[in-house]
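Think of the structure tokens as a kind of shorthand, similar to the way a musician reads notation: each symbol stands for something richer, in this case the local conformation of the backbone. In the example below we present two proteins back to back. Begin with the first one, reading the sequence and then the tokens, and try to describe in your own words what changes along the chain.
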Amino acid sequence: MAATEGHIQSAGKIPARHLMVIIGALLVEVAFSITLTGLSFFTPAVLGDFPGTRAGAFMIHFTLYGFASAASMPVAGMLIDRIKAPGLLVLGGLIAAGGLVVFSAAQSLWWFYAAGIVIGIGVGLSLQYVPIVVINRWFVAKRGTVLGIVLAGTGVGGVILGVVVPILLRTVGWRTSMVIMAVAMVVLTTGPALFLLRSNPEDLGLRPYGAEVAPADEVTTKTGNEPGMTQREAFGSIWFYVLAASLLLLGAIYGMTQHFVNYLSGKPWGVELRPEEISTIIITATICLIVFKPFLGWFIDKIGLERALWIVLLIAAGATAAWAYMTTLLPYVFFVIFIFLGTASGTVAPPLIAEHSFGQKEFSKIWGTLGMAYPIGLSIGAAVWGWVKDYFGSYGYGFVSVPVFTLLVLLGVSATFRGARKLWVPEAQQLA
């Protein structure tokens, strides 16, 4: 039985060197929050300096950032075994920091667009890719839990930035504040690369945590005999495309979260929510996202990946449909908690799904391409949800349709587990 099905024996205390890897990956995710959450704080100040610029036109830089980061991930997959994870992290971190400097010096919209592309390339080469691959190589037991803890770093970073950035904007202005963000980017990527992270535990004479008690189909080694599919074999299988479509659809579903403030501000059911009530709902969602990422990883390790996905995503889908009929603060807060349980799954689950489907043999290369699906889905979904509002006059029709689309995602993932694993699991059993 596979590790992602919740049946690995206890591997004991996590060694100190493995803990250093967790800390390093967590710091990289904090750096990731600079481009995820941090940039959003600059929008009002930038628009104030460019009074003739519409918000929609300015925000194109963030769309370009998203697509550039996704497009550069396959390049990261090709480079990681050549220049190693630390080298890739330094390279991408410096590129992202350079993009932030370009942003700070912007004199027109085109500067912001160029900055978005450069930042995205750097992020896709490093922050969005390296932590996931490194954790996958260093951990077999508790992989879901560790990955959840690491990915919660973006939420922790978002909270820190929510306090620090407004103070910086008031005291030194947005241009200098952005340069400070660039310096932080360099520190939080170069530091872990130099002192904490390594591509493989075998580089230090160690083994992945839990490898000695794991089934053969879950263990990464450097012998060349890792079980799983090659990149070419995965790309030649229909199941790669079924899974890519499923993850893209999952991202499109949770693109709705970018519209929550707009929905709540639009007097749903004719009921006006005060700004502080809307803030309470969004803060609750943010806190839940931080807590739920490690919880979801633990839950996956405890009961198994497939079972956990069905439970979590169906609960989140039901809560989303119910949200369409809420009219007061407490029900909104109650249901948003369960909605963001599903949102957390969008970052924690996809790499675990990919590894379970196609194995460890060339996971880093496969994930370099497959990892694009969810973020591209988010970008597409943000636009689609806007169209739903424009066409139907309300987000409500979209909310009540979420259970149907969630079911399609789950069926696609489950079918991939069964179809893809039949192509390579016998190899793992022979190695056991």
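Once you have a description of the first chain, move to the second and do the same.
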Amino acid sequence: MNKSSITLLLFSVCLGLSINTVIYASSSSTLPADLLYNNKPINPLCFDQGELSNKTLSLTDNCELEPINVLGQSKELLNEGYYGFEYKLKDDSGFASSYSYYKVIGYYNHLYTLLLISNTGGSGHFSSLYLVNRDQNKLHIKTLPFGGDRCNGGLNEVTQNKNIITFTSNITPGDFLSISNNNPEQLQAYDDLDACAACCVATASYTTDLQKDSTKATLTSIQFSKDPETLSDLKSPEHTGYQACFNKLVLSYITKDKTTLSVQELGTFMNEFNSKCTQAKKSNL
């Protein structure tokens, strides 16, 4: 090994040590004690693993995680109250890195509500909600069925007041078919209306009650996006059929500054869609 290689190796080791020092120094001071282990923040990857909705993991076994190399942190996310890091698996020879961060949303009845955002090297940006209970060196984790990848259910604002969690979730045109319960022609997401992970058109607001069924959420309203990119996509001449008609209807609401709809108003919107778009297309066949 030549001198330059040795210097590079020592620099890498020192950088890794300094990164870990910064991570734990910047995080442990504001996290509740239940979310610390050996005076360090619990690894976010402990929460973000497995398909089971309920799981118990041992902190003494490092949650049975694979070894990783920590690459750094996002200052922006740290400033927003998140705890976590960018990383790569130690046996991963690829160039893509991943990230995992969590934020404490609230605490009720011995359960912490955590919002976790993550990526495993692709284009996705996943968000999830967890209820976490600490019992000595055991973590009892319940995954709530809310969240997703970007426009496919990705979470935005999440707040908690005692037992009530309120959150907004990104939705696509295709989601209107299911959340409205007003789809008499049985149109399909993807086939008839856009539903891709980059096809955001609105956000939906929900509440869930931890005293009742934490896996059930009640829709309270939807809000159309006025983001310039979204508006440009809605105006695109490339859209045809149901999608073009849906876009035209959304734009008419935005033009009238009717961007927030109650559940009842969502029903009215879908009635208009069904009469102007689906019935009109049937009559032209």
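Compare your description with these statements about the second chain. The longest helix spans residues 3-27.
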